[in-house]
Amino acid sequence: MNYYKFEPLLKQTLWGGDKIIPFKKLEAQMENVGESWEISGVKDNETIAVGDGRSLNQLVRDLKGQLVGEASYKRFGDEFPLLIKFIDARQDLSIQVHPTDEIAHRQGKSRGKTEMWFVMDSAPEAKLYNGLKLQITPEQYKQMVENDTICDALAQYEVKEGDCFFIPAGRIHAIGAGCFLAEIQQTSDVTYRIYDFKRKDKDGNYRQLHTQEASESINYTVLEDYRTKYNPQKNESQLLVECPYFNTAVYDLTEPMTMDYSELDSFIILIGLKGQGTLIIDGEEVTFQAGETILVPATVKEVRTEGTIKFLETYVLS
Questions:
Q1: How far apart are CA 18 and CA 21, in angstroms?
Q2: DSSP 3-state of 99
Q3: Do the Cβ atoms of 8 and 295 come closer than 8 Å?
Q4: CA-closest candidate to residue 223, choices 171, 163, 185, 159
Q5: Nearest to 240 by CA among 166, 309, 187
Q6: SS3 75
Q7: Do 145 and 52 contact (CB within 8 A), yes or no?
Q8: What would the pLDDT profile of 182-227 be if each residue is shown by its tens digit?
Q9: Where are the alpha helices (DSSP H) in the chain?
């Protein structure tokens, strides 16, 4: 096949909002749906290919480099390297950090997690945390968690549609209430919870924090601005993120465009953000609209788009 669509995994959460419900056009109403895992090779949470029946990692095992690219298959093996989500937050999510691969290995984990967010049509008051604004030490960090002042050290941003944040492993972050966004990340479930606003579960217990592991994982460097800067343009590719784990660009198209992948040794993931259109993938036609995610195998040489549609394009350079 020239492309794969997958059945999304809808995650019900206490903090989930209702944007994903109309966005995914579900027939059955579900409350508190916080995440839609679009493409996932996470163990016990693999997405299944529509009309094919195979899980994502089974496709990788069967097709190998033909699906993900020869260099990517050599690097990542039978596990698909990226996890794609839509996240809809009705409440503030916990403050978190993820380790680098190196630190994760020292801590007995398989790999760390680098990720990025692209903000979609969010609430007017939507905010998020990304990075440190105060220079603190690991000891000060632990004290601030203990005395409930850790948020004072974090950079907070009011966000709107089109905002982008790159979150390399080690950077403290949290999604705030009202945010609706697309997330691209390494395939990893290593998350260290730093602070959860003293919230209690139904049994009256605080959620577990990972203060020590987090202190070992935080990059304490302070930057002036953590927002990814780019110049939005119609009918052009706008590069957002270039890192060892993924490259991501955004397209906002109102006219046809042909994307040449003949020299690229990687799968391509297209994530629909707004509008609708048609993709012609090496001559095979498929509809594409907001809320859909399509995996294009590494063997595909060309994708042509038609229609009015905004989407993210991501792939791996090895």
A1: 6
A2: coil
A3: no
A4: 171
A5: 166
A6: helix
A7: no
A8: 999 999 989 999 999 988 777 888 889 999 999 999 999 999 999 9
A9: 20-24, 56-63, 65-68, 70-76, 101-106, 138-146, 211-217
Per-residue model confidence (pLDDT) at position 205: 87
Cα–Cα distance between 124 and 104 in angstroms, integer? Answer: 37
**Phi and psi torsions of 253, nearest 5°:** -105, 135
Token pair 């697309």 is at which residue? 182
- Name the residue type at position 232: P
Residue 144 CA to residue 249 CA, distance in Å, equals 37
- The neighbour count for residue 149, using CB atoms within 10 Å, is 12
249-273: pLDDT as tens digits: 999 999 999 999 999 999 999 999 9
- Tell the residue number behind the tokens 């953590």, with chain if given: 226
Whether pTM > 0.90 for this model: the answer is yes
Name the CA radius of gyration of the chain, rounded.
19
Using one digit for the tens of pLDDT, what is the confidence trace for 11-46? Answer: 888 778 888 878 887 654 555 668 999 999 999 999
Q: Is 168 or 18 the better-scoring residue by pLDDT?
A: 168
User: For residues 304 and 71, is the Cβ–Cβ distance under 8 A?
Assistant: no
Q: Residue 179: helix, strand or coil by DSSP? A: coil
Residues 6+ apart with CB under 8 A from 108: none
